[in-house]
Fold this sequence. Notes:
Strand content: under 5%
Order of helices and strands: HHHH
Distance between the termini: 63 Å
Largest sheet: none
Low-confidence stretches: none
Shape: elongated
Amino acid sequence: MGFLFGVVNQILLAVLAVGLLGVIVWGCRMWWQRRPTRTDRALLAATAVGWALPLLGITLAAFLLIDLTPAVARRRPAGRRPPGKRLRKLARERT
């Protein structure tokens, strides 16, 4: 750290930064527990925001991809394998 600000001020700023990070993580955790189940409206709103603010749209698209991946994985039947594994198994049996 530089010498521009005093040590006490640097400690206070570090505590403030850690507190802000804690509030952000806590808010995301609370939202994750009570997130909306209807994705059609959320997808429409996300598309509109992403078109109006492209840089925010990129991060929003990444967040939606991370958020929707577990839901899609849960919809797959438990007994079926992904197609890639099935094709590899068939290829091994033929050789």
